[in-house]
Recover the amino acids of this structure.
């Protein structure tokens, strides 16, 4: 099959999942053509595969009045399917901004003879795929990666016109079934994101921290207040004050390429006098993340909200004992006390106690290392997402 694959601002710092899925689709002998709205900021282009990904990505977001006019003409000729643009000024604005991109996508889909387009977003990328379909392009589908409120207006239009959709957690499926009742495609599947467990595996057995040596903690997520890095810093200060020697490395950058929330975290780090104990690494590539995980005694991500968490999956796949927060859909990935540990979000004190207890229990750390790896290997492999997409696209093509 020939599949169009849309990811907003590809390849961003958290987009390794999409790259893995693209490679998995191609390993299944399908032809994948990658599209994106626009390039990410330079400071977020960090992977060793980024140049290759950008070279093969068609960017749709540039302003093109002629393409917009052609797209509007196609929609007018085919008839808008009862969309009430007056009901939402935001949706009307998004429509205006997406018209040119949708016409370019339609034209590329025709040239490349695409069988289907999948949008890994429910934001403007999904609207572009939807509009391209109504301009005469191929059927499309979408994936919901987080709370519906994060993805802007026009959700009923995007969903009710999709051939099928996937959501990454049961919690998100319950949300859309309530909010979008009567406007969902017939097929809505739960399909979590996944990781390449063959690449993300240890080269040496996990070893707990040695007595008298620092505890090495690694965290990896974009620098944003909701990721809770500031809570990990506060917990680190408490551990040090309690006589526990900790070294923390945080990989990731803010959405402004280092000119946004990073500065707030740097101020917090200085206020807590943690310059010798906490390092902000910036955006690093997947190989560097794997190396940091191999060296870590613990992986900690103290998110205030996390739809599911690829970073947790990567750590567990690498056999690193993992501490997350009981927020969003993380409980669908980490079983508290079995495959990892969960703490309350925005609770540095509880995080401190959990880290300290695990640091003093090498048997528990070894158990978590094995259990986390086995859980991800069984349920969160990247190939599972690719297999689901292929199966559902084939069903769409067969049913016309």
């Amino acid at each position: 099959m020939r599949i169009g694959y849309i990811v907003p601002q590809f390849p961003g710092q958290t987009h390794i999942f999409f790259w893995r899925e693209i490679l998995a689709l191609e390993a299944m002998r399908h032809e994948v053509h990658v599209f994106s709205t626009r390039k990410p900021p330079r400071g977020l282009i960090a992977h060793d595969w980024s140049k290759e990904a950008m070279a093969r990505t068609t960017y749709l977001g540039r302003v093109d009045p002629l393409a917009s006019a052609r797209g509007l003409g196609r929609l007018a000729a085919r008839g808008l399917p009862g969309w009430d643009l007056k009901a939402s000024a935001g949706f009307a604005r998004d429509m205006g901004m997406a018209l040119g991109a949708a016409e370019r996508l339609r034209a590329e889909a025709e040239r490349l003879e695409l069988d289907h387009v999948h949008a890994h977003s429910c934001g403007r990328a999904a609207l572009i795929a939807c509009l391209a379909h109504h301009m005469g392009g191929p059927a499309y589908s979408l994936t919901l990666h987080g709370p519906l409120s994060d993805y802007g207006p026009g959700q009923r239009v995007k969903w009710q016109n999709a051939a099928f959709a996937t959501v990454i957690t049961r919690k998100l499926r319950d949300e859309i079934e309530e909010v979008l009742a009567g406007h969902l495609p017939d097929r809505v599947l739960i399909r979590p994101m996944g990781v390449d467990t063959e690449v993300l595996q240890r080269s040496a057995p996990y070893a707990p921290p040695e007595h008298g040596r620092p505890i090495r903690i690694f965290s990896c997520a974009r620098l944003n207040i909701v990721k809770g890095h500031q809570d990990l810093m506060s917990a680190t200060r408490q551990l040090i004050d309690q006589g526990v020697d900790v070294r923390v490395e945080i990989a990731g950058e803010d959405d402004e390429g280092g000119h946004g929330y990073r500065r707030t975290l740097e101020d917090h780090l200085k206020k807590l006098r943690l310059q010798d104990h906490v390092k902000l690494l910036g955006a690093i590539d997947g190989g560097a993340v794997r190396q940091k995980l191999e060296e870590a005694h613990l992986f900690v991500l103290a998110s205030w909200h996390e739809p599911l968490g690829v970073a947790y999956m990567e750590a567990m796949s690498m056999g690193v004992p993992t501490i997350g927060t009981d927020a969003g859909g993380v409980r669908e990935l980490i079983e508290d006390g079995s495959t990892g540990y969960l703490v309350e979000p925005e609770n540095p004190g509880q995080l401190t106690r959990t880290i300290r207890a695990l640091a003093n229990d090498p048997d528990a750390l070894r158990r978590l290392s094995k259990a986390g790896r086995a859980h991800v290997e069984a349920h969160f492999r990247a190939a599972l997402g690719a297999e689901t997409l292929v199966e559902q696209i084939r069903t769409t093509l067969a049913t016309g």
Observations:
- The first helix runs from residue 16 to 27.
- The chain has two domains: 2-194+381-399, 215-379.
- The mean pLDDT is 93.
- The domain at 215-379 is CATH 3.40.50.2000 (Rossmann fold).
